[in-house]
Amino acid sequence: xxxxxxxxxxxxxxxxxxxxxxxxxxxxxxxxxxxxxxxxxxxxxxxxxxxxxxxxxxxxxxxxxxxxxxxxxxxxxxxxxxxxxxxxxxxxxxxxxxxxxxxxxxxxxxxxxxxxxxxxxxxxxxxxxxxxxxxxxxxxxxxxxxxxxxxxxxxxxxxxxxxxxxxxxxxxxxxxxxxxxxxxxxxxxxxxxxxxxxxxxxxxxxxxxxxxxxxxxxxxxxxxxxxxxxxxxxxxxxxxxxxxxxxxxxxxxxxxxxxxxxxxxxxxxxxxxxxxxxxxxxxxxxxxxxxxxxxxxxxxxxxxxxxxxxxxxxxxxxxxxxxxxxxxxxxxxxxxxxxxxxxxxxxxxxxxxxxxxxxxxxxxxxxxxxxxxxxxxxxxxxxxxxxxxxxxxxxxxxxxxxxxxxxxxxxxxxxxxxxxxxxxxx
Length: 426
Known about the structure:
This protein is mainly α. Helices cover about 75% and strands about 0% of the residues.
C-alpha cells in the first residue's frame, strides 16, 4: 500500500504547484490588464506598423514612376534586396506554422496553446512577403496576367496556387481553433496544413533548384534545404514575437516550456547548418561549380563581401552564437530565447543575401572552358548596393506583417496560456 500512497502524494503536490503557478500567472495578467493602457498601446503599435507599411508603399510608387534605374538592380542582378525580405517572410511563414502542427497533428500539449499565434503569424508573414514580391515586379498590374493565364510548366505558376491555398487552409485552421463546434476538425485541417506547407516550401526552393540559367542555383538539394531553413527561421520569429508579447504583459515562460523550445530551436539550427554545408560541399565537388564556390566561400575574384556575410553573418552570428545561447540559456536569463531568435533572423538575412545577390553577381559561364569579355560586362562580377527604395519596400512588408499581427492579437485571444502545458511538460 506504500506505493499508491506515494503516487497520490506526488500527484497532489504537482496539482498544488500547478494551481499555485496558475494563480500567480492570473494575478500578473490581471495586474497588467488596464483597458485604457491596452487601448493606447494598441493604437500606438498599429500606427507604427501602418506608418512603416505606407513608407513601403510610397517606395514602390516611386519605383513605379521612375523605374528600377533608381535602385541598385540592373540587367544582371534583377532580384535585389526586396526579394531577400520577401523570400525570408514566405519561408518563415511556412516554418512558423510548425509550432501549431506539433500541437494539433502530433498531440503535444505544450505547443497547443501556441497554435493560434502560430497561425496568425503564418498569415501575416505570408501577406507581407507577397506584398513585397508583387510590388517589386516593376509592373505590379501585370499580376492579373499571371492570375488569368497559367503556364503549368513554370514553377512560378504553381506558387500562385500554393500561396493562396496556404492562406485558405490556415484561415480554416484558425476557425477550427476558435469555434468549439468545429473543434473535431482541428487535427484533419492541421494535417492538411502540414502537408501543404511542405509542398509550398518545396515549391519555393524549386524556383531556384529548377533555374538552370544561374549555375549557383540548379540543385535538387535546395527543396529540402528550404524546408529545414523554414523550421529554424519560423521558430525564431515565433519566439521573438512570443517573448515580446509576454514581456508586454509582464509574464514569463515556465522553465520547462523554455527548455523544450530552446532545445527544439537548437536542433533546427544544427540541421539547417548541416544542409547548407552539404549543399556547398556538393557544389564544390563538381568542377563546373568550383569557381563559384571559391567565390562565395573564400571570397576569390571579388566575392569578399559574400564570403564575409556567409561565414560571419550566417555561420557565426546566425548559427554558432544562437546555438551556444540555447545550450546555455542562463547566460542571458529570460531574454535568452528572444536574443537567440534574433540572431537566427539576422543570420537568415545574411544567408539569403549571399544566396540571392551573390549568386547573380557571379558571371555566367556561357561558354565553359573559355574566357568571355565584352563592353557589356560579360565575364565580370556585378556590383550591387541596395538603395533607399529597396530598403523601404522590404521594411514595408515587415510593417504590414507587424500590423496584421497587432490587429489579430488585439481582436482575438492569441496569448499562450502555459499552466496546463507546463504541468504536462514536467
